Amino acid sequence: MSYDYDLFVIGAGSGGVSASRRAASYGAKVAIAENDLVGGTCVIRGCVPKKLMVYASSFSHLYQDALGYGWGKVEPSFEWQKMIEAVNKEVRRLSQVYIDMLEKSGVELIHGKAVFLDAHTVQVGERKITADKILIAVGGEAVKLDIPGIEYSITSREMFHLKEQPKRFAVIGGGYIAVEFACIMHGLGSEVTQIIRRDLILRGFDDDIRKDVQEGMIKHGVKFLTETRVEKIEKKEDGLELTLAGKGAGKITVDAVLCATGRQPNIKELGLENAGVEVVNGAIAVKPDSCTSQPNIYAVGDCTNRVNLTPVAIAQGRAFADTVFGHIPRYITHKNIPSAVFAQPEAATVGMSEAEAREKLGDNVIVYRTKFRPMFHSLTGADEKVMIKLVVDRVTERVLGAHMVGKDAAEIIQGIAIAINMGATKKDFDNTIALHPSSAEEFVLLR
Ligand code: NDP
C-alpha cells in the first residue's frame, strides 16, 4: 500500500521537529502538523522566554552587588512592557528559525490540528493525509486546581503576555515552574507570596537542594505560606482575594495568581481511540523505543510523561528516527539526566538524590557536602551561599549523584553530568586538578 508520507509528525515542538528532520535526513518523505507557533512549549511558552525573563530579573541583584565593588548607587527603573515585547520578538524570531530549518531539511509544514481517523490516516482541516509511520509529539498542558474562582488565575503560558507587571503576585505550587516564576517576579520587583501544600518546595530533588533554595528565596524576600491550600479565589475591587486554609489560613489580596500545580499530556481530541493507541494514566503508553500499542505509531516527549524535559524529547525523537528510518536501533535509558531550576539561588542536579541512593543501597552510601560563601560575595556583603554535594557508592566508589545550589549551578552540573554518565568514581574527581579560583573546584576538593 502506498501512503502520502513515510512519516507524519503531529506537533512541531522540540521532539517533533528533531525527529522529523532526522527522519528526512535518511531520505524519508516527511510532513509535520502544528496548530500553533512552530517551536512548541520550550521555544514559545517555556524554557526560552522563561530564561530570558530570568536574565531580566537578575539585574536587580547585580545593581545591588556592584556597590561592594565600588560602583555608585543607581536608581534602576524597569519597564515590564519593554521586556515582554523584547522576549516575544525573540520567540517569534526563533519560531521562524525552526520553520526555516524544517524547510531546509525537506520537511513539509502543515498548519492545523491533526486528528486520527485510523492508524494510518489523519485529518488536518479539510485534508485527509495518510502515512506509513506516525509520530505523536503533542507535548503537555498546564493543569489548574479545581477550586472556585480558578478562572481568575493564570498559567505559565499567560505569564509571557501580561500587559502589566502585577505588583502583588501569588504563586500556587512548589515545582520547577512555580519556583522559577516566584524568583523572576521577585527579581523584577513584585511582592511575591508562594503557597505550597508541603513544608518544602521541589519534591523529588535532593533535600539539601530543596532546603537551600527555599531558604535562599526567603532571604531574598519571597514570602512562603507552607502547608497551606488555596480554597477559593474571588475578584474584589482591589484585586484577587485568595482564601487560604491550613497553616497559613486567612486571606491575601494580589494582582495576579499563577497556578503552577503540574502539567499533563495534551492528548484530548487527538482521536487516539480511532487509531488504537493506548493511554495509561492520562499519558500515551510507549515501549522503550517510543512505539505505542499500535506498531506503526510512535510517541515522544511530554505526551508520554516519561521525563518531561526538552533535551529528553529531542533525544527520544532522534532515537526514534535513527531506529525506524536510519536502521540504527537505539533507545534512551533516561538515566543521569541533568536538570536545573533557574531560581535565585539557582539549583542543578544529576543522578541520584541522597534519599534515592539510601533507599537503593542502604548504608553503602557516602555523602560529601560543603557549603560556603562564594568569592564573588566576599565584597558584596550579601548573605549568599553555595552548596555542593556528591552522593557516592561506598563499595564501587562511583559517584551516583551531584547536586549544587548557587550561581551557575546549571552550567557547572552539565560538565559534571558527563563524568557521572561515564561512571566516574570519587577518586576520579579527587585526581582532577582544581580550576582556581572558582566555585566548581569544590567538586574535586570534597573530603
Ligand atoms: P511539577 O510537577 O514540577 O510541580 C507541581 C507542583 O504543584 C508541586 O509542587 C506539587 O506539590 C504542586 N501541586 C500539585 N497538585 C497540587 C494541589 N492540588 N494543590 C497544591 N499544590 C499542588 O510541575 P510544574 O508545573 O512546575 O512543571 C511541569 C514540568 O515542566 C516539570 O515536571 C518539568 O519537567 C518541566 N519544567 C522544567 C523546567 C526546567 O527544567 N528548568 C522548568 C519548568 C518546567 P507536591 O510537591 O506537594 O506534589
CATH topology of the largest domain: FAD/NAD(P)-binding domain
CATH superfamily of the largest domain: FAD/NAD(P)-binding domain
What small molecules accompany the polymer chains? NADPH dihydro-nicotinamide-adenine-dinucleotide phosphate
Q: Would you tell me the structural class of the helices and strands?
A: alpha/beta
The chain-level mean pLDDT equals 98
Radius of gyration: 24 Å
CATH C-level class of the largest domain is Alpha Beta
Unreliable stretches (pLDDT < 50, length at least 5) are none
Short description:
The protein is an alpha/beta fold and 447 residues long. It is 31% helix and 26% strand. Strands 1, 2, 3, 4, 5, 6 and 18 form a 7-stranded mixed beta sheet that branches.
Can you tell me about this structure?
- The chain has 447 residues and is an alpha/beta fold.
- It folds into three domains: 5-140 and 264-324, 3-Layer(bba) Sandwich (FAD/NAD(P)-binding domain); 150-261, FAD/NAD(P)-binding domain, CATH 3.50.50.60; 345-444, FAD/NAD-linked reductase, C-terminal dimerisation domain (Enolase-like, domain 1, 2-Layer Sandwich).
- The chain contains twelve helices and 23 strands.
- Helix 3 (47-66) crosses helix 4 (80-105).
- The termini are far apart.
- 43% of the residues are buried.
- The protein binds NADPH dihydro-nicotinamide-adenine-dinucleotide phosphate.
